[in-house]
Amino acid sequence: MNLRLYNTLTKKKEKFIPIKAGEIGIYVCGITAYDVCHIGHARSAVVFDVIYRYLKYSGYDVNYVKNFTDVDDKIIGKANAEGTDIYGISERYIKEHNEDMDHLGVVRPTVAPKATENIMGMIRLIDALMEKGFAYVVDGDVYYSVEKFKGYGKLSGRGLDDMLAGARIDVDEKKKNPFDFVLWKSSKEGEPWWNSPWGRGRPGWHIECSVMSQRFLGDTFDIHGGGEDLIFPHHENEIAQSEGATGKPFANYWIHNGFIKIDSEKMSKSLGNTLTIKEILTAYHPEVVRFFILQSHYKSYIDFSDASIAEARVGMGRFYATLKGIKDALDEAVDFSNSSEKDLSGEDEEVWGKVSTLPDRFKEAMDDDFNTAMAMGYLFDTVRIINGYISKNSAPTRGSLFVLNEARKQIREVGKVLGLFLEDPDEYLEKDKEREIRKSGLDVEEVERLIDERKRARESKDWGRADELRDLLAARGIVLRDTPTSTTWKLE
User: pLDDT digit string (tens) for 49-97?
Assistant: First the structure.
């Protein structure tokens, strides 16, 4: 494997070398389970889903760990407001999360640990930090002393001296340094608690991920990932507490995906512009959402708008239309199962020479820091070539059928890694049409009635009435496509 990836820790693209040949350990920070997931969660989930799929496609045994934070101030606040406990809240939103991810085609991780299942491990890690002088206790709260860890700031690229101006931090007179962070919080009235050497309390957020990653991947593992908003302070603090306790490197490679903006504005609840996964999936096929996310490099920010997602839908439609064209050509053939490269003519050989390179070009793109944008470009090239090829081969030969069948296999193979092109093309295109009809408010029965009337007009050679009906449908945004056997339609 010739994978090179951008490592946030070193600020450069590096050759990826796993700790153990043939095996890779990945930890990705999951959700805090207090609300439904939005399009930003979808981006991170799809990005790391494709990374996971690609590493497995490349032959690696991948141990993929993605956690759930199920004890947190926001979860406690919602539980108190609803008169329930943190488990009722977290289980509800973990279930919602899993449903959203399943609908998006996101593969479940190898392990999905919960913070509350690992409290004893957190206590042990905090105790180790206390023994090594990295932590101190004030009134039952345990803090990490950032000044004791010489590498603090190495991930975010900021030193302690210049951080104060650029970071938001809690004002707490208990801290020796404003950037010291809490490892263990003493319990307050109405909050869940566990017994510890420092009294009743609960863990801080950062310690949770250190413990869960070490439990399932070891003290040092290959890749740690998450959104770029986690670089500081969360991931910075994970490094400090993990390496402070073990004296070993924490993760060798750090991958961070960029933000999603909504109509060129940062998405936030305060602006009221959050868009949930459930909302978007009522209007668009899950593969359209994946396509929209993957057509940009994972590190870049992407701008979600009605126009951009509609454009992604059109792009997906092109791929499925091509797959349908291939399917129709193969279905009409008497037999192509024994066709082979021996049957290729000059033109067939030329097209096959271009199309057959798709897997290698896909691998080239993905090995370049998981460049899905480049990979999608190669897929579009293949579809363009195949569409031109189909239009020239109205009478398929054994050679052309071989090319079409192999092209379909390769598009499907590459698509599977991206989580795309997994449906039967007829079913996809029909579902897509139904979604657009629902959004437009069209009366489908009326449309079908007019198309049927036009068919009868054509049969009776009443071309004027047939043209009149076509124009009437076109005015409603309906485009007709006549074939020798039928008429199909779609919304423009």
Answer: 999 999 999 999 999 999 999 999 999 999 999 999 999 999 999 999 9
Which pLDDT score, from 0 to 100, does residue 173 have? 75
pLDDT of residue 339: 65
Architecture of the domain made up of 316-427: Orthogonal Bundle (1.10)
SS (H, E, C) the chain: CCCEEEECCCCEEEECCCCECCEEEEEECCCECCCCCEHHHHHHHHHHHHHHHHHHHCCCEEEEEECEECCCHHHHHHHHHHCCCHHHHHHHHHHHHHHHHHHCCCCCCCECCEHHHHHHHHHHHHHHHHHCCCEEEECCEEEECHHHCCCCCCCCCCCHHHHCCCCCCCCCCCCCCCCCEEEEEECCCCCCCECCCCCCEEECHHHHHHHHHHHHHCCCEEEEEEEHHHHHHHHHHHHHHHHHHHCCCCEEEEEEECCEEECCEECCCCCCCCCEHHHHHHHCCHHHHHHHHHCCCCCCCEEECHHHHHHHHHHHHHHHHHHHHHHHHHHHCCCCCCCCHHHCCHHHHHHHHHHCCHHHHHHHHHHECCCHHHHHHHHHHHHHHHHHHHHHCCCCCHHHHHHHHHHHHHHHHHHHHHCCCCCCHHHHHHHHHHHHHHHHCCCHHHHHHHHHHHHHHHHCCCHHHHHHHHHHHHHCCEEEEECCCCEEEEEC
Where are the chain's structural domains? 4-283, 316-427, 442-491
Q: Does domain 4-283 have CATH number 3.30.70.920?
A: no
pTM over the 0.70 mark: yes
* pLDDT at 170 (0 to 100): 57
Positions of the chain with pLDDT lower than 70, given as ranges: 162-171, 270, 334-342, 394
Q: Report pLDDT for 107.
A: 98
